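[job 4471] stage=fold_predict status=RUNNING
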Amino acid sequence: MNAVKKVLKAREMTALLFLAALFVVVGIINPAFLADSKNVANCFNDSVVYILIAVAMAFAIFIGEIDVSVGSNLGLVAAVVGTMLQDGKNWFLAFFIGILMGTVVGLINGWGVAVMKIPSLIFTLGTNGILRGLMYLQVGVEQVNSLPKEYVFLNYLRCHDDIGWGLDYPWLGQRFGINEAAHKKYLNDYFTGKWPGSGGRGELYNDDPRLGDARLCGTTASLCGLEAAVFEQDPFKVERAVACDLTLHAWMLSQSGIPVIYSGDEVGQLNDWSYKEDPGKCEDSRYIHRGDFRWELARRREDPDTRQGKQFRLLRRMEELRAAEPCFDGGADVWTEDSGSPHVLALCRRMGDRELVCLFNFSGGFVSAGVDREGAYRELMYGDRYESIRSVPLWPNGFAWLLRENT
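[job 4471] inference complete, writing structure tokens
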């Protein structure tokens, strides 16, 4: 009797009784639910993943620590494994890579907490952000790539209007717990230079503090940090900002469809702040990126030693490569793959027996990343050759267009 009382008093019994009551209530509301035993079995089967996570989390809690990155770790692994299986990869290899990815993330978290002595909440919160960012790229790009090839898009980085962050926030909130207002505020703070370490110099439009919403204005170059770098007369920051600008254009040019380059972007035109001195324009911050074309800057495109000359020459080179390479055709197969780095997005395009692997480093540091390929590949922009592209060195905010050389 004492043993029975001890079991009934256990705190775990409360959760068990609640679960049983939940089944009873659902069964009363919908009798068909309990009538089919498969429904109950499916509920328990779907809980297996969460039970495994809870058991592992219990060990962290027992030693006074916490890991808030488990959800994003699970989501990223599921996205990568699902993509591999969808692409027809061997199921054993896919599951092995999934387990390996989860293990590596766990080791990184353990190293940061145990060796670096960083509080587990802080370190795993950072890991959580990195994993989620990579997961958004993986899932979002796959949705676009799965659209019928008959669709033709106009792709651009900037246009005459503001940026409204029209993301699918209901879906993002349901899948990843993203708060719309907080996420938009972060993006706007980053690109207006309010976020620590940001070089963005945008302006807000229709700022509504009550709703916490606003739209963003600014030229591509200024949003990438070029305006701040030029003002500070920092050659290092100028190079980084130009690299960011070019990599974003390379990403745009790598998409299927018709690429559009907004007037002034070909020479890295900066914001036009003179609109504030015009009574007819000063109330509309969109004029910051609608300034007159700077023809004196256009003349500098002929000088390779100027930043305008470098941007124009490299952007023109990208356009020529895109026009000549069949893999950029709208009928090509397009998909993403795991690059081995949370900072690098790998986009693959295949047309017949030709394959192009595009790597984009969205971080400010040197990164080595790639995809699981053997054989000779040639980098189109700079001519480098690789016998394997599992680990390709990428410059900060850099990219690589790797074409397979058929022998």
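[job 4471] summary: The mean pLDDT is 85.
[job 4471] exit 0
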